[in-house]
TrEMBL record:
It comes from Parthenolecanium corni. Its main location: membrane. PROSITE patterns: MFS. GO terms for biological process: monoatomic anion transport. GO terms for cellular component: membrane. It is a multi-pass membrane protein. InterPro entries: MFS, MFS_dom, MFS_Na/Anion_cotransporter, MFS_trans_sf. The chain crosses the membrane at residues 12-30, 69-87, 94-114, 162-181, 187-206, 286-307. Keywords: Membrane, Transmembrane, Transmembrane helix. This is Major facilitator superfamily (MFS) profile domain-containing protein.
């Protein structure tokens, strides 16, 4: 029987979802912080001291090609995300997720040092950052499966994963503000430091399964063990031949390819577009770049609750729920370019210019 205390904040699975929400936000914040920082790193800055105006020369004089290689390095590392599945089988989803967050945070904190060494040293570190984040993203699916019931799994997963959209939406303006008032190094120190701290909290409070946790209530532990179909996947044999021959797998792969391409454009290219075409300062670039991600936040939160409602009421089967919501979400990739094309008329640029005057 489900715990009826009415104090949902005391139930451990909600704590898992909350920490997961924060971690997903930080993971994607560390993915996108370079998109804002690199604008500040490669642009001259005008500073007024008293009655004198001083122009600070950009610290790095990278070509467009070099910038492209730097920004794409993360994605090359992220292609190894399936490695997270193997680490999950070895260490458990919760442990693998914590390791991914901690390593990504450490590499982020060390970013200024890597850049001082050599361009290619940082590119290699950025690839490793993609590897570590890929491990975290794939392992979290197993972590939330162990800590949720079939009844609330979509809600907990949706709430957790919406953290990435919040991370991008809030991260852009936060990183822009940090770079504006401090410098680009502060962006990496702050975001990486917070992530390392969160990973320590995660390891201290969360275990791989309810059965291993001695900090949760006995009532909730019994409830999760009774209704959850969770079982260890360490000895699970994957039918790779059938997976690669599945039309559904390739359909989903194609959707994710298009979605990832669109998301990468907004993540890595939009700040440069705003800077080069509209000549907006670094602080305001962060606010403008965050705007397309607002829809993602709303859609993820609403869709997760809608999925549980449709499945629990028997209106749609689990597979049909996933398919239909995936089709709806794919339309965001078609709508967003129209907003970018008409950014001059969005009202934000006008407001920014008025504030600057």
């Amino acid at each position: 029987m489900e715990p009826q205390s009415g104090k949902f904040y005391l139930q451990k699975r909600y704590l898992v979802a909350l920490l997961g929400f924060i971690a997903w936000g930080l993971l994607f914040l560390m993915r996108t912080n370079l998109s804002i920082s690199i604008v500040d790193m490669t642009s001259n800055r005008t500073v007024t001291v008293g009655n004198e105006t001083i122009t600070q020369v950009a610290e790095f004089d990278w070509s467009s090609k070099e910038k492209g290689v730097i920004l794409s390095a993360f994605s090359w590392g992220f292609t190894t995300a399936p490695l997270g599945a193997f680490l999950t089988r070895r260490f458990g989803g919760v442990s693998a997720f914590g390791m991914g967050v901690a390593l990504t945070g450490l590499l982020t904190v060390l970013t200024p040092l890597f850049m001082k060494c050599h361009l290619y040293v940082y590119i290699a570190a950025r690839v490793m950052e993609g590897v570590s984040e890929g491990i975290a993203v794939t392992s979290y699916i197993e972590a939330i499966r162990a800590w949720s019931t079939p009844k609330d799994r979509s809600r907990l997963m949706g709430v957790s994963m919406s953290g990435y959209a919040f991370g991008v939406m809030l991260g852009y303006p936060v990183c822009g503000t940090i770079a504006y008032y401090m410098n680009w190094k502060g962006v990496f120190y702050i975001t990486g430091g917070i992530s390392i701290t969160l990973s320590l909290i995660w390891f201290a409070l969360i275990r791989n399964s309810p059965g291993e946790d001695n900090l949760m209530s006995l009532q909730e532990k019994k409830y999760l063990q009774q209704v959850n179909t969770y079982a260890s996947r360490k000895n699970l044999v994957y039918p790779w031949k059938q997976i690669f021959k599945s039309k559904a797998v390739w359909a989903y792969w194609n959707e994710r390819f298009v979605g990832a391409f669109s998301e990468s454009f907004f993540t890595f290219s939009l700040p440069f577009y705003i800077k080069d075409v509209h000549d907006v300062n670094i602080q305001d670039i962060g606010f403008i770049a965050a705007m397309p991600h607002i829809f993602t936040v709303v859609a993820l939160l609403y869709g997760s609750f809608l999925a549980d409602f449709l499945r629990n009421r028997g209106i749609l089967s689990p597979s049909n729920v996933s398919t239909r919501l995936l089709i709806i979400m794919s339309y965001k990739h078609n709508i967003s370019p129209f907003w970018i094309e008409n950014i001059e008329n969005s009202g934000f640029i006008v407001k920014t210019n008025l504030l600057q005057e």
